[in-house]
Amino acid sequence: MKDHHKHGDKHHKHKDGKRKGNLQAYQCESDAAVMVHQLPRQDKALLKVNTPSWNLNDTRLEMMAATTGSGERFVNETNPTSKYEWHQKGDMGVLSITINDKIHSLNCEKTELPPPPHGKHPKKDVPKQTVQPADKAS
What we know:
single chain; mainly beta; Lipocalin; 8-stranded antiparallel beta barrel; two-stranded antiparallel ribbon; 10 strands; globular; disordered N terminus
C-alpha cells in the first residue's frame, strides 16, 4: 500500500500536493529556470518561473492540463493579454508566452532538484558518540 500509512486505527491517503515525485526542475535558455509541481488529480501544474529576459522572478503560475499529441501540456490563460504554456516530454520542456499574438519560447532541460532551503533538510542520523571511561584499572 504505497500511499497509506497508519495513524492509530485510521488510514488516510496523502494528497498529490505532498508527493515529492511530482516536483521537477528544468534549466532553460537565457539563464531561465522552471520548477514544475504536477498535481495530476487536479489536472494542473504549479510552476515557479525565473526568466530574467522576461522579467519574471520567482513568478508562480497555476496552469491547467491541456490536450497534446505527446508529452504533457499545461496552459494559463487567466490574463486576456497573455497566454503561458508549458509543454514537456521526456527530459525536455518548452516554456512559451504569447503576447499580442507574438510567441516567445525558451527550451528547457530537466536537471537535478536543488537542495531544500536552509532549515528544511530532513533529519540525518547522527552517529552516537561513544564515551570512553576516564580511568581503566588494569
